[in-house]
TrEMBL record, chain B:
Pfam families, alphabetized: BPD_transp_2 (PF02653)
GO molecular function: transmembrane transporter activity
Database matches in CDD domains: TM_PBP1_transp_TpRbsC_like
Entry protein name: ABC transporter permease
Transmembrane segments: 48-70, 82-114, 134-157, 178-199, 229-251, 263-291, 311-331
Length: 516, 345
């Protein structure tokens, strides 16, 4: 197994202005012909390290060796011509172009007088697709193909340029669970053909399935590199977070109380008059967490918007604590509902604002302590105390409250939002993907918060695309499919397979056959 | 805040240096030119008072644009709102006969309402028909201009005048001079203080700013974004209207053809330079006023044409706005170097 060292990064240091040390004296080497996973929490420095290597970010210190020689890629183009290609998280293709057009773009074979030799280009792409068994139609429009297929186009784009090293930044983040094995098979095939693959991820299962060696990073430093075969998920998590992480539920048995939230037969259409919610009915009791599962785009978004008053319903009723809020304005709803939206930058906060400004939203109208001058003024002194309260109670690591919100890490941004919402002390809490994009440590923290809410007799509705999360914290799981709430399952009496079955459109009748 | 002040000062100094270069290349003496500029804008009694008076419409329209831009609505209707405000004050000053103590506040009120009426119209069209205020306020500027021209050419034309203008308003509506400074300055300062309180200490200002940055966040947070939109439009229209009213009451005391001219456009430019900050708008308003006032004197005593000031203003806008970004980069780089040393040590 003694492979040659292909890439050697020595003492790389990178500081993001003004003073965030993203990489601190990082040394790591990658061998030729291996799949090498780079894991770590969000903000550990994985992507930054690869961007430095790839010429996308300048470094402040350190050396890079490729095939034994010291190299310096100033742009990705230089890296590609040296044989190194990187696939980013966001896919950057032209939807109106076909697969082969996208692949050859920027490196088209040309005839005399500079016209593109379309036939030759298409043929070259077709050959590559066959060689790597990528299962793609070279003539399909990129706008028409799935996200998984687009990702393949990105990879082929690099293979077409004859790279021997592929860097993939969280390639599975955009894929559905069914699409992941296929990608992995293709990557393994590439390795067997002699390519070197560097694979950035924070999903531990994937890392262990796919890679030969794993390097763990934490806080901009290397924790260690080891062969994947001898590792367990718990080992990796401990290295990533720096302490033990629990992967099992700590949900204590508890009798739920009165019904707090009730959505009855909600119907809602989109702008083209297609039904997005069909008679959706959900109830949540005090001291109960109800999970909403479903393949994305099956009405969860509309359900959340209907509850918050962002979307207008064609029929149905909503009430919280017996108070009818079907037609209430948003502010009235906010006296009863704490809401953690799925997109921090879009709905959860203004990233351009200060931490303080983002932290006091909603409180600034509902809490009389924020008022001065008979309600005309805002008491900024009280606001600063309030931020301190969030900081202490929710262990936010932050600078001054007047610092910009965007200076916080993702996990700390989410903590500020959670703190703001939970301190509203409402009977009902609505959380939409509260752990999306967070690192392992922060996810664990959010789960603990959810369970605390439960033991404090709050009613929680948790929309999540992560089944593991739902099974860990939810008492009941309702499954949404095509705008309908198709089934309501007690978590302890069901399985991931059963939930998955309903997510994909299975019906109640079949449920009786399989039995549970 | 301190960074912004520093980048502003450095930017203005750099702009003056560039201006000096331009002067020297044309064969003028930069020192003498700038000397005259300062002499006639700041360091002579009459120059200074003229600078401060000229700053009134600049700062008020600048505040109008700053508050609008910071809160979301792209209100570019300050020129029209200024004209309508001036017209409001003129109407009251011509036809209402009251003692000064009542007539002055009434005229002020009329100018606020005149401006708010014009911006309110744009807000109404937005709310009712989703018409973008960006284009509506621009178009309303033309309507206000020609409407005012019609008013002063026909119904309110002063027969004793040779060009379109109204008769003078009642002397009870004239703003008195306080020493050598016109009292319109006091109203402007008062308005600026109120603006600062609203934006920096008020609940509305907080909601407006949040809406301007991310309206979905503000809306889901419980802010009444639609009502706030209308309020911002009304307030910023009223500010521009006040500029017009004060120009009538403090200056020519009648509506003259071409009143307002470019003040409101300069105000929008000042808001951009000040990146929509209230105190920044105030200071840059004074600076631009000093330049425009000094230009007249500069042309008198040196051979430099007053158009040079247009060049200088443009250079200031470019250098300050571009400098703000690049100076931040310099600060970042310095901080990085400090951090590197720390982590090495």
């Amino acid at each position: 197994m003694a492979r040659d060292v292909l890439i050697d990064l020595q003492h790389i240091t990178k500081v993001f202005p003004p003073d965030t040390v993203a990489l601190s004296d990082v040394s790591v080497s990658f061998e030729s012909g291996e799949i090498h996973a780079l894991v770590g929490e969000n903000g550990a420095g994985k992507s930054t390290l690869m961007k430095v290597f790839y010429g996308l970010e300048r470094r402040d210190a350190g050396d890079i060796f490729f095939k034994g020689a010291k190299v310096e890629f100033r742009t990705p183009r230089e890296a590609i011509s040296a044989g190194i290609g990187m696939v980013h998280q966001e896919i950057l293709l032209i939807p109106e172009y076909t697969v082969w057009q996208n692949i050859v773009l920027g490196a088209e074979p040309v005839r005399a007088f500079g016209t593109i030799d379309a036939h030759k280009a298409r043929e070259a792409v077709r050959q590559r697709i066959e060689e790597f068994q990528f299962n793609l139609d070279p003539d399909a429009l990129v706008g028409d193909i799935s996200v998984a297929a687009r990702q393949k186009v990105e990879i082929l784009k690099l293979l077409y340029r004859n790279v021997s090293v592929l860097v993939l930044d969280e390639p599975t983040a955009v894929l559905t669970p069914q699409e992941i094995p296929q990608l992995f098979a293709e990557l393994a095939r590439l390795r067997d053909k002699g390519h070197t693959i560097i694979f950035i991820s924070h999903r531990l299962d994937e890392v262990l399935t796919l890679s030969d060696r794993v390097t763990v990073m934490r806080h901009g430093k290397i924790v260690g590199t080891s062969a994947a075969s001898g590792l367990t998920k718990e080992d990796l998590a401990r290295q990533m977070v720096g302490r033990e992480v629990l992967f099992t539920s700590r949900r204590q048995p508890q009798e739920p109380g009165e019904i707090v939230f009730r959505a009855r037969e909600l119907n809602c259409n989109d702008t083209e008059h297609r039904a997005r919610l069909r008679d959706a009915t959900v109830e949540v009791r005090a001291g109960e967490i109800v999970g909403v599962a479903g393949v994305e785009g099956n009405g969860q978004f509309e359900l959340v918007n209907a509850i918050m008053g962002l979307a207008s319903m064609t029929s149905g009723t909503l009430d919280v604590m017996g108070k009818d809020i079907t037609h209430a304005d948003i502010l009235t709803r906010r006296t009863l509902i704490a809401f953690v939206p799925q997109d921090r930058g879009k709905m959860g906060a203004s990233v351009a604002a200060s931490i303080l400004e983002d932290a006091i939203m909603t409180h600034h109208v509902l809490d009389p302590r924020f008022r001065t001058w008979r309600g005309l003024g805002l008491d900024y002194r009280h606001a600063a105390e309030f931020v301190d309260q969030i900081r202490e109670q929710f262990t936010v690591s932050m600078g001054h409250s007047s610092d910009p919100f965007r200076s916080l890490s993702g996990g700390n941004q989410q903590k500020v939002i959670l703190g703001r919402e939970l301190l509203l002390e409402t009977p009902f809490v609505l959380m939409d993907q509260p752990t999306r994009g967070l690192d392992v440590g922060s996810i664990e923290y959010v789960h603990q918060l959810l369970l605390n809410l439960r033991s404090r007799k709050r009613a929680v509705l948790l929309v999540s695309a992560d089944l593991d999360e739902l099974f860990m914290v939810a008492d009941r799981i309702v499954v949404m499919c095509q705008g309908e709430v198709v089934v309501d399952l007690a978590t302890d009496a069901t399985s991931r397979e059963e939930v998955g079955y309903y997510m994909l459109g299975g019906k109640e009748a079949a449920h009786a056959e399989t039995g549970s | 805040m301190r960074k912004q002040a520093l980048s502003g000062i450095l930017g203005v100094l750099a702009a003056f240096a560039i201006g000096a270069l331009v002067l020297a290349l044309q064969g003028f003496n930069p020192v003498a030119t700038y000397g005259a500029l300062l002499q006639y804008s700041l360091f002579s009694g009459s120059g200074f008072t003229a600078t401060v008076t000229r700053a009134v419409p600049l700062i008020l329209t600048g505040l109008s644009a700053s508050i609008a831009f910071a809160s979301g609505p792209v209100n570019l209707g300050q020129p029209g709102q200024l004209v309508m405000g001036a017209l409001g004050a003129t109407l009251v000053g011509l036809f209402v006969h009251l003692p000064s103590a009542f007539l002055v506040p009434l005229c002020i009120l009329a100018s606020l309402l005149g401006g708010a009426l014009w911006s309110g119209l744009a807000a109404l069209l937005k709310r009712a028909f989703a018409m973008d205020e960006f284009i509506v306020t621009l178009m309303l500027n033309f309507i206000a201009d020609y409407f005012a021209l019609w008013v002063i050419t026909y119904p309110l034309f002063d027969p004793s005048a040779s060009t379109p203008m109204t008769r003078p308003i009642s002397t009870a509506a004239w703003l008195p001079d306080l020493g050598s400074v016109n009292t319109s300055v006091l109203f402007m300062v008062l308005a600026a203080v109120v603006c600062w309180l609203i934006m920096s200490r008020g609940r509305s200002g907080y909601e407006w700013r949040m809406t301007g940055q991310n309206s979905l966040f503000a809306r889901i947070g419980g802010c009444k974004v639609n009502a706030n939109y209308v309020r911002v439009m009304l307030v910023t229209g009223a500010l521009a209207g006040l500029a017009g009213g004060l120009m009538i009451m403090g200056g020519p005391h009648r509506f003259v053809k071409g009143l307002g001219a470019n003040y409101a456009w300069d105000g929008i430019m000042i808001a951009v330079v000040a990146s929509n900050g209230i105190s920044g708008t105030f200071l840059y308003g004074l600076l631009f006023s000093a330049l425009q006032q000094g230009a007249i004197g500069m042309e008198l005593v040196t051979a430099v044409p007053s158009e040079f000031i247009d060049v200088l203003q443009a250079v200031i806008v470019l250098v300050v706005v571009a400098g703000r970004v690049s100076l931040n980069m310099v600060f970042d780089r310095l901080a990085t170097r400090r951090k590197l040393k720390e982590s090495a040590g």
